[in-house]
Amino acid sequence: MVIRLPCGRANLAAPVANFILPVKPDTGYQWLESQEAPECLEWVDKQNELSTQQLDALPQTKTLQEKLASLSDTDVRRPSYWIAGNLFRLRKSSTNKQGILEVAERQPDGTFGEWRLVLDIDELGRKEDRELEFLEFNFQNRTFGPDASRILVLLSDGGSDLVELRELDVKQGKFVQDGFRTEPGRISIAWLDLDHVLINHTLNGTPTTTAGFGATSYIWKRGTDLKEAKLVNTAPGTICLISSMGPTHSGQALISCALDYSTFTHHLVSVDGTVQKLDIPQKQPLSLPVKSISTHVVVPLAEKTTVCGRELPVGAIIAYNTSPDVPASEKLSVVYVPEPDEVNAHLFIDGFHSSRSRAYLIMSKRDSERRLILEKADKDWKLVQSVPTKIGSHVGLTSGDPYSDDIILTESGLLSPSTTWLESTDGAQRSLYAQPSVFEDSAFQVQQKSTNSKDGTSVDYLILSPKEPKHKQGEQPVLMTGYGAFGISVMLSYLDMMLGGISLVPWFESGGSLVIPFIRGGGERGPEWHEAARQEKRQRSYDDFIAVAETLVRDGITIPKRIGVFGTSNGGLLAAVMGTQRPDLFGAIVSDVPLTDMMRYPHLGMGAAWIHEFGDPQEPEMAKVLQSYSPFHNVRQGVQYPPFLVTVSTKDDRVGAGHARKFVAKLKDAGASDVFLYEDRVGGHGVSDPFKNATLMSRRVAFLTEFLQSRPLTT
């Protein structure tokens, strides 16, 4: 039997003993993987009832729900913005949780008019008696022409990744009668011209990839049945994404297929059905949708590559000219080569964009960041401008206009509310949004520190903490979070959704701290930092996180029972690993929409797409690695686990609800106390949105407050 260690500073590195027997054969839980089977939902309902009874009985829950509801009534939620000839924004509020889509039309003098309603998603959902959500990803590629007169709208029911297509007339604010429309499926689409679209889908029994995406792409003509669409490409791999090639009415579009998450192929499709495979180096980091500038496809490199006689490092940006008039020897050009120790830490999210003739990059070194603007000049590209970011902030590239060189940018920091603005070629700026401050941020400080991981690697971490502590010295309540996979960096913006959004406000107001380790597997230190924790090296990511937690204790900041961990998706896996590998080191765990069964993850949701990241459990050596940290496989009887709150949605078809269900079932069978599952019927992979789901998030904060602040310490 393993006894939980005392809460002092000694014996921090003691692992959970590996001789304790598993609870049940792992196959005994597979029945819980069926998303909507009646017997599964009956089990879920019982778990939800138990969880809500206990969590709603906590003294903080009702007050927290009222607090989050009041915050939702403020203007703290940053709208989403795009520019595609005209300006668009999706604005959400407590009364419009799914949002209203608005347009500001460009005037003859280049300015923009007043905002005008185009589509009310909540009202549409009420009319159809469904929980419709508007898919924002790749929105810009689904607008048509320089006046963005039409939009290919993708709508999800309940947060599912399966979406249905409808064609929206922006001028009329109505869906086009007999326009492009489909049933729900995995769909990626872009315009070729007003009467033709390039579409990849999973409808009508079309072939799919191992990850469940469409394997075939088609040209679909207006007024015809989708079944009659012309097949133009069949691709191997896991994911295929359609994106525009320059202006959305150019008559061309791109098919980008991920063979794995660092190997991509690109095909250029013309409206006449011509398909050209582009001779671009295939090793590229995850950066979708693909960026294009006029006739150029612009991509980053994931490995050292020789281009135009130059050996380029990882992270360099190159361009491929698709024009048929350019000879093959001159197709490739070098856009930008990073300086030593310079990385694009937010490549996947907001660190890379393009407009009509420019490429934009956000490059950073350890303590500084700058925004670069580059333009094509003859056969080369030149740096037009380098703009430093103020210390403590991050500038993100929100949207670039394919019809001009206007760009939308957002600046924010952990203690600096966001500002969003439109910037034109001459540097003129139009303010779009200024986020209000909703807690006393001047009473807090952010410090960057470092510690050594198990193998000696230096790991940086940030501590956001009150300047004047409210809690006993050495017992500071701390929330830790991270991600650590796919080269994705944690967003360090004001109340970012990745950090919990407005649900952090009551935690800060009660005197809590937030710690963000820059663990390997993420993108904070560039592609090599990601590669350092991929597949068989995954444990390094967890060692980094553990090292930071141990340092917090060793430095006398806090004690294990006052440290909580929360994370979403791969961050949910991280949180679950922390609770099973080092139950002695943490006082509470929140695992949101997690992976937990690393032996079956390829069979759940779109898990087959992630084999390049995690490894293939069918390979014997890799199976040993996966099983060594798989939270589901490392639940043992006799271990005193920290309290767990595991949250998920029945509609989460990205990771799959089975991971969360099986993990909770096994923890309870092992005799773990204070284990809660809450599964919402809707919400999908984004179920823990405090604006849409204040009830769930108030329970989450109440859970963390109860176990990390309110309950008296025991040894």
Describe the structure.
- Its EC number is 3.4.21.-.
- Helix 4 links the parallel strand 34 and strand 35.
- The strands form 9 sheets. An 8-stranded mixed beta sheet has the order 32-33-35-34-36-37-38-39, with helices on both faces. Strands 5, 6, 7, 8 and 9 form a 5-stranded antiparallel beta sheet that branches.
- The radius of gyration is 25 Å and the shape is globular.
- By secondary structure, it is α+β, with helices and mostly antiparallel strands.
- It has 11 helices and 39 strands.
Provide the fold topology.
Blueprint: H1 38-56, H2 61-72, E1 80-84, E2 86-91, E3 100-104, E4 116-120, H3 121-128, E5 132-134, E6 143-144, E7 150-157, E8 163-169, E9 174-175, E10 188-193, E11 196-200, E12 216-221, E13 230-234, E14 239-244, E15 252-260, E16 263-270, E17 275-277, E18 291-293, E19 296-300, E20 305-307, E21 310-312, E22 317-321, E23 332-336, E24 352-354, E25 358-365, E26 368-377, E27 380-388, E28 394-400, E29 407-413, E30 416-423, E31 429-434, E32 444-452, E33 458-466, E34 478-481, H4 504-509, E35 513-517, H5 527-531, H6 539-554, E36 563-568, H7 570-581, E37 588-592, H8 611-614, H9 620-629, E38 644-649, H10 658-669, E39 675-680, H11 694-710
Parallel strand pairs: 34-35, 34-36, 36-37, 37-38, 38-39
Antiparallel strand pairs: 1-2, 2-3, 3-4, 5-7, 6-7, 7-8, 8-9, 10-11, 11-12, 12-13, 14-15, 15-16, 16-17, 18-19, 19-22, 20-21, 22-23, 24-25, 25-26, 26-27, 28-29, 29-30, 30-31, 32-33, 33-35
